[in-house]
Amino acid sequence: MERKGSPYVIEITVISAEGLRLSRNQPVKKNSCVVLRSDPFNSRTTGMDSEGGSYPAWNEKLLMELPANARFLTVEAHSGSRLVGAASIPVSDFAASFLPVNYLSFLSYRLRDAHGAKNGILNLSVKVIGRPSPTIGCAASCSGGPWPGVPLADGKVAGHGIVTGIPVSYRW
Amino acid sequence: MGQCFSDVNGGKQAVGGVATAAASGPNDAVDHFFRARGEHSLCTQIELSLSASKLLDLDYTSKSDPMAVVYMKRRDGKLEEIGRTEVILNSLDPTWIQKINITYQFEVVQTLILHVYDVDSKYHNLPVKMLKLQDQDFLGETTCAVSEVVTKRNRSLTLNLHNTNRIRGSGNKGTLTVRADEIVTSRNAIELKFRCSSLENKDTFSKSDPFLRISRASENGGYIPICKTEVVNNNLNPTWKPLFLTMQQFMSKENPLLIECFDFNTNGNHVLIGKVQKSVAEIEALHQSRACANLISPPSGFRHHEKVMKSQIFVDGFVEKQQYSFLDYISSGFELNFMVAVDFTASNGIPTSPNSLHYIDHSGRLNAYQQAIMEVGEVIQFYDSDRRFPAWGFGGKTPNGSISHCFNLNGSPTDFEVEGVEGIMAAYTSALHNVSLSGPTLFGQVINKAADIAGHSLSCNQAKYYVLLIITDGVVSDLQETINSVVKASDLPLSILIVGVGNADFKEMEILDADNGRRLESITGRVATRDIVQFVPMREVHAGQISVVQALLEELPSQFLSYMRCRDVKPLNVPQL
C-alpha cells in the first residue's frame, strides 16, 4: 500500500493554537483550521474550529505519509480562506533516531505571518508509526552525525555534526 | 509587541482549576523525604482558606489589591514562607481562592504569621511567587497558632490585623479569617467544560465579560470558593477552557457546588449575572443527558424573590480522571536519575583566592559549590534510584589545553559516572586541581548531553526520568544557546534544576525558569512544550526563606507529572488499559 520511498507514516494530533491574529490588533474570531503539508502535493487539513476564537482547539488526529527524504513538514493556520501564520517543523524533532517507534512527541511552534512577524503558537503531538530501516536513516539525533538523507542545499555540514542551513530565512 | 492578545491581563486569569498545577495539592515529594527520616510522626495535611474584611485602602483612585502571604515561625525564630494567595483586584473584603497547604503537626506549636499586602497594579501580570514583597504596600499582619484554628468548632478563626510599622492612624486595620480543612487525599479528579448561552448584558457600551466562580458548600454553612475560570471578553455565549477539579477541592460527588457567573469589571465590582447550585453528580447527569440548567438571578432591587433567567449553562465536557501522584509513580518503580554539572568558568574567581566561590579552604570549611553539592546532594541522593551520578563540568580548560563545555568531572575520558555525593565531592576537588577556570558560560552542551541520555533511555525503558542539576554562579554568556537546548529537551523525560551560588544577578535564570508563564522560544521557532527548568538561588535558601528540600523539590513533582500525564503514562503497578 505504501508508495516506494515513503516508508514513514506519522500520526499528527493538532491540539490547539494560541493567540492567532488577523492583523496587528485584530484577533481571529472563528473558523480557523490547520493545514499540514509534507510536500506541495500532499496535505491534510483539520476541521474548522468555530468556538475558540483566537485560541482554537481541534484535538484532531491526522495520518500522513512522509517521504523518506522529507526533512520538514509545513504547518499553516488558516482563518476561513486566509493564511494567518505558518511554521516548518524539522522532521528530526519527532523522528530522531534514538526515539522509539510510537513515542508521542509533544511539540509547539511559533507561527509567523507572510511578513515574518510573530503570530501565535501551534501545539501538536506527533507519533511515528512506521519508520524506515536504520540504513536509510532519515533521522538525525541532536548529537549524532550528519544527516544521511538528501544533501543539504549548500552541502555544508558544521564540524560538530550539527546540521546547518535550516531554511528559516523567510521568517526573519 | 505582538503579544497583546496572548497575554491575559492581571486578575483575569483562571485560578484553582488548572490541570497542570499539580503543586496545588500537597507536595508529597517533600513529605515523603521527611517521613522517611521519621520527622513527621503525627501529622496531617490541612489547607487554609483565607478571607479578609475592611482592609485598609491604600490606592488613591481605586481600592487596594490585596494578597495574603503565610509564614510559619521556625524553631530558631525565623520566618519561613509557606505560600501566597492570588491577588484580588480592587477589593477591601477579599475571599482568596488559592489555598495554602500546610502540614499540621499535633505535638508542635506551629505559629502562623499572616501578612496582607496591597500589590501595585504594575505587578499584576507577574505570578505572585515572583513578587518582591518589599515593593508592595503592607496592609497589616496577624498571628495565630495552627492548633487554635483547627480546634475551633467551625474550624475558622477571625483575627484583627495590625500594622506596626506604619504611622498612618492606629485605627481599624480590618480582620483576617483563617479557615482550616483537612485535605481529602484521593486520586479522583474531574475535568469539566462549561459553556453559557444568552447571558444578560451588564455592560453599557460592550457585552458582558463573563467568568465562572465555583464554590463548595462547607459542613457548617457558607461557601468556600475553590476555583474561577478565566474571563471571556465581550461575549454573551462564552465557552471557558476546561476546568480541572480534584476531589480535594470538591470533597465529594454529592457535595453541592455553587456555580456563579460574574461580569468582570476592572474596578473589582464584579456583577453577578446568575448562579446555579449543582453537585458533581448532578453536573455529570446534565452532561450525559446533554441538558442544560437555567441560571437563577438573586433577589435584587424591587424583586424580593429569586428569578429563573433565560441564560443557560451547559456542561460540554465531563471526564472523570484518576490522578496519580508523584509518589504513586516513584513507589511503583519509576526511576529518577540525577546528573550533575558544575560551573568552571572564570567568573567564579581564581580558586586560590579566598574570595573565589571555588576556594578550597584547607581548614576544611566548605566553599559555596561544596556546600551546594552537599546540601542538594542529600536531597537528590534520597530520590535517585542507583546513587550513581553522571557528573560534568563546563567552561574550564582541561589538562589537554582545550576549553570544554562538557568534560567529565572525574577526569576519566570515558566514564562520567561517580558514586554518591562523596563521589561528586571527590571528583569536584580533583577537577579543581586539574582544570583551570575559563569561559564562556555555556549550558547548551551539558543540556544536550543530558537530553541525549534521556532520549536514548526511551528506547530501552520508559520508566525513567532524568534531572540535570546545574550548579553555577549564574552569568550565562549566550542565553539563546541555552534556550535552544532547553526547548529541544522539553519533550524528553528531563527536568533541569539550576542552583545559583554566589551573589550574581540571576535575572537570566528567572527567564529560563519560565514561571511567569512566558514560554521559551528557540531560534528556529520551536517553543517549549512545558516548563522543565527550576531555578533555586542558594542565598535565598541560606537566608532562611525556604528549606533546601522544599526549594529543590518545589517544581520537580509537577514537572514529572506533566510529562507522565500528557502521555497518559500510568504507574507500573496499575494495569495498563
TrEMBL record, chain A:
Residues 9-103 form the C2 domain. SUPFAM superfamilies: C2 domain (Calcium/lipid-binding domain, CaLB) (SSF49562). CDD domains: C2_SRC2_like (cd04051). This is BON1-associated protein 2-like. It comes from Salvia divinorum (Maria pastora). The lineage of its organism: Eukaryota, Viridiplantae, Streptophyta, Embryophyta, Tracheophyta.
UniProtKB/TrEMBL annotation, chain B:
Belongs to the copine family. Its main location: membrane. One of its GO terms (cellular component) is plasma membrane. It is found in: Cell membrane. Residues 25-159, 170-293 form the C2 domain. It holds the Pfam family C2. One of its GO terms (biological process) is defense response. GO terms for molecular function: metal ion binding. Keywords: Calcium, Cell membrane, Lipoprotein, Membrane, Metal-binding, Plant defense, Repeat. Residues 337-556 form the VWFA domain. PANTHER family: COPINE (PTHR10857), PROTEIN BONZAI 3 (PTHR10857:SF120). PROSITE patterns: C2, VWFA. It is a lipid-anchor. This is Protein BONZAI 3. The lineage of its organism: Eukaryota, Viridiplantae, Streptophyta, Embryophyta, Tracheophyta.
